[in-house]
Design brief:
Length: 336
């Protein structure tokens, strides 16, 4: 099995569709183009694929001509990000990327105010909406902070290790998603929305070519929602192993420990120090693979279970329901 997908809380799709309807966009068109349904959107426990969220955003971008998804005080017209990306891609360093990028958007997009600040040991990127009340579920804030971390990381070919991310809003219901989106300390009810990182990485060179950039822009925003290789050392090693195995039923912690030239006890301790466990990582991979496979109507539910290492359909059903809140059959029907 080659792992290519992970899942995302339906919260983001719910917020985007709700705002689009308020702005008079065609809901049925948006759902059709994104591969979503009313049943999925109405179930708060459901998770969706990066492809579904990406297609939904692209549909809104085109329908509203607004890359801010109608959450801003004024639109950021479709194509503005591409223009900015092409300009900053000629930067010599990450420092120039942030300086040029913030200057560009402050001139072009009136719905946001960006600021880049260097301090002695770390740097901060600030983001404010001129009318935050238009983004009550914080969808645009989450999306833009994610963009301004992941796109510059891609330009320099390495993760920008975040020290902290701060939000002006209180801890939201979807706060668990932040662990995947922003692997760092998260603080709430701050004076500004921001993230900060070590000052030293500002000298990192931009390494992507113009051809790479063109390909990247063709995929946007999909790459921003796919799981990044931004995990602690042992968590990443375990995920790499799980994501490439052909037989999930045969995966054991002993095999994995031997593969990593360590002991089960040491591996368990390392994962605990990184805030996770072997079973948690295994379940997250199986959950996201299950969601992907169930999005393909030609694959029987029993076959999905077997691919993920479940010998009995009932066991797979119980596991899937514990992961998502609904049974596999219910999830599949909700997509029709």
């Amino acid at each position: 099995m080659r792992y290519k997908h992970h899942s995302i809380s339906v919260h983001f799709a719910q917020g985007i569709v709700k705002r689009a309807i308020e702005q008079g966009l065609d809901e049925e068109k948006l759902l059709h183009e994104s591969g979503l349904s009313h049943a999925l959107l109405n179930n708060n426990e459901v998770r969706i694929t990066p492809e579904q969220l990406s297609r939904l955003m692209q549909s809104v971008w085109h329908s509203a001509d607004d890359e801010y998804l109608c959450f801003g005080s004024e639109p950021s017209r479709h194509g503005v990000f591409n223009l900015m990306a092409k300009q900053v891609s000629h930067s010599a360093s990450l420092r120039q990327v942030y300086r040029r990028g913030t200057r560009f958007y402050n001139l072009i997009a009136g719905a946001t105010k960006l600021k880049f600040e260097e301090r002695e040991k770390y740097a901060r990127f600030y983001l404010q909406l001129t009318k935050p009340e238009l983004d009550p579920e914080h969808v645009l804030i989450d999306f833009l902070l994610l963009l301004w971390h992941r796109f510059p990381s891609w330009l320099i070919g390495q993760r920008i290790p975040l020290r902290k991310i701060g939000f002006m809003h209180a801890k939201p219901a979807h706060h668990e998603e932040y662990r995947l989106m922003f692997p760092c300390e998260v603080v709430y009810q701050q004076e500004n929305n921001y993230f900060e990182f070590e000052h030293a990485i500002l000298s990192a060179a931009v390494v992507q070519t113009q051809q790479n950039l063109n390909d990247y822009l063709q995929r946007c925003p999909l790459d921003w929602f796919k799981r990044q290789s931004y995990f602690p050392v042992y968590t990443r090693k375990v995920l790499n192993y799980l994501e490439t195995t052909d037989d999930m039923s045969a995966v054991s912690m002993l095999d994995l420990a031997m593969q990593l030239h360590t002991t089960i006890r040491t591996l368990r301790r390392k994962l605990l120090e990184e805030g996770t466990s072997f079973q948690e990582l295994k379940d997250s991979v199986r959950r996201d693979e299950a969601i992907h496979y169930l999005s393909q109507p030609d694959m029987a539910i029993s076959q999905v279970g077997r691919l993920l290492g479940f010998t009995e359909a009932a066991t797979f059903t119980r596991a899937f329901k514990s992961w998502t809140g609904v049974a596999p059959s219910t999830y599949r029907k909700s997509k029709i």
